[in-house]
Amino acid sequence: MIRVLVAEDMHIVRGALVALLRLEPDIEVVSEVASGDEILTAARTSRTQVAVIDIDLPGKDGLTAATELHEQLPEVRTLILTSLGRPGTLRRALAAKVNGFLLKDAPAEKLANAVRGVAAGRRMVDGDLALAAWDTVECPLTPREIDVLRLTAEGRDTLEVAAKAFLSTGTVRNYLTTIVSKLNARNRVDAIRIAKESGWI
């Protein structure tokens, strides 16, 4: 039996995922959580083999939680679910060392097969999405610039971003100017839109 943890904050969606997986004779759902902060502890106590994780979770997001699992419980395989098939999101997932990446609107049998695949040590990625990622431009922003833009996208002003990122306000302004330039954006709001649509933040 493959021991599976399901991490999804929307109750109806989580219930549907659990119900689908429980129909499979070789899969056992051993834990269900609603936030990224619960994943590591739940995986450890339930002896999870495969963690099925929604990318957009409250607390730690799905990719942060997957990275934490990879570092602290490397025997646990991770399968990321997302409703947004953006190539940039897939690139971020692969950089986080996830084992699988699946769209939420994939057929039910694809989910079970993806769980089996990652449990067996294979990397399972939606074929169309993989091709799209192959063809897209890599994110031109540095990790630090992405952090600054992500904090700005959360609605923080320059002072708040500076405090959160341990930078001076002048440095934050310089980063934002560079970001706008690199993305050929009209302004910060446009830069945030471009980065979100590309799956970079």
Automatic annotation (TrEMBL):
Organism ancestry: Bacteria, Bacillati, Actinomycetota, Actinomycetes, Pseudonocardiales
CDD domains: LuxR_C_like
GO molecular function: DNA binding
Name the UniProt record assigns to this protein: DNA-binding response regulator
Pfam family, one: Response_reg
Ranges of residues in domain Response regulatory: 3-119
Record key words, sorted: DNA-binding, Phosphoprotein
Cross-referenced SUPFAM superfamilies: C-terminal effector domain of the bipartite response regulators, CheY-like
4-aspartylphosphate modifications at: D54
Any one GO biological process: regulation of DNA-templated transcription
Domain of life of the organism encoding this protein: Bacteria
Domain HTH luxR-type as annotated: residue spans: 133-199
